[in-house]
Amino acid sequence: MLFQNSHGRAAATGADSVVMLEHTVPVDDTMIEIIKGVGAGTNLIRKGEDIKRDTTALSEGHLLRPQDLGLLAGLGIAEVNVYKKIRVGIVSTGDEIIPFQEKPRTGQIRNINSLTLTGMVRRLGGEVTDYGIVSDHRDIFFPALEKAVQENDIVLFSGGSSVGVRDLGEQAVETLGPPGILVHGVALKPGKPILIGMSGATPVFGLPGHPVSALVCFDLFVGPAIRALQGKNEILPEPGLSCVLSRNINSAAGRRDLVRVKLKLENDTWTAYPILGKSGSISTLSRADGFFVIDEENQGVSRDDQVLVYLYQ
Which pTM was predicted? Predict the structure, then answer.
């Protein structure tokens, strides 16, 4: 027995399959010829076939995408519990720092880091409060950092993390209360002088002043902290591409090196071309498509070696 049915509607009572209209030819007003046969269940979606009762549709820590909203709508779910947006405070410190719109005089540096770090946080779904440029004097910097800690879930300060006469980052974090400093300095290039501490439950990161070092430390340390507080299951960036290295790169044993690269598709193979430069050269990041890691136990990688490249978004 044949019934005419529209796409998406319930099948007629007694029907066990559906033939697509374009697979039929009219014979007369009461008959059609089926030119492509079907078996039982063809072109039918049975109740509960997509998501079965008592199964998990979306796990905790899953980042909601447009298709996930469609899934929830299909299940009749209008509201779900989500993690709040993470609030990140950014403090730029240093008497030599000036707003990036201004022309620097001798000994002055444009404030690059607050702008780039703001973009990195927002890319991860966080909200930013920029506390501006703060003098690296104790009576000004310490209260500014304390205010940022009180008002945010994570605090970043740029500059003041290396060992120097006027670098008060470590002292400032210690005054915020326990547990205080957790890490000061890592075997990493670029990014060695990073400072990591906690004030109660609030992570505080002292990022290097050099722009490249600051962004590398964000990728490796700050980004995972943000994802963890967001409740995400995957907090570390995943390698995006396996690439062939274009040249030899040396590295010091006992130190992890992050090498920026430009990618080119050559003969159906992705080739990674290293972009070398100092940690203050922001243009090396702007030209790079991603980076790969040379681990502490290696003293370099060779031309034509396979490397896993973490892609910049």
Answer: 0.77
- DSSP-assigned states of every residue in 154-215: EEEEES--SSSTT--HHHHHHTT-TEEEEEE--SEETTTT-EEEEETTEEEEEE-SSHHHHH
Q: Which residues pair with 195 in a beta bridge?
A: 184, 206
The first and second tokens of residue 127, run together, are 């909200």
Q: Beta strands 202-207 and 195-199: pairing type?
A: antiparallel
Distance CA 250, CA 253 (A): 10
* Residue 165: per-residue pLDDT: 40
Query: Tokens at residue 132, please?
Result: 């501006």
258's tokens: 């992050």
The residue count for the chain = 313
Q: What is the pLDDT of residue 3?
A: 63
pLDDT under 50: residue ranges of the chain:
165-166
Bridge partners (DSSP) of residue 291 are: 260, 310
Which of 208, 229, 183 shows the shortest CA–CA distance to 116? 208
From residue 88, alpha-carbon distances to 100, 113, 146, 218 in Å are: 21, 14, 13, 12
Beta bridge partners of 88: 128, 154
Alpha-carbon gap, residue 187 to 194, rounded angstroms: 10
Domains of the chain: 1-53 (no CATH), 87-229 (3.40.980.10), 241-311 (2.40.340.10)
* pLDDT (tens digit per residue) in 25-55: 888 877 878 888 788 877 777 777 778 888 8
Number of neighbouring beta carbons within 10 Å of residue 243: 24
Please state the separation of Cα 133 from the chain's center in Å: 26
CB atoms under 10 Å from CB of 39, counted, come to 7
Query: Are residues 118 and 128 in contact, defined by beta-carbon separation less than 8 angstroms?
Result: yes
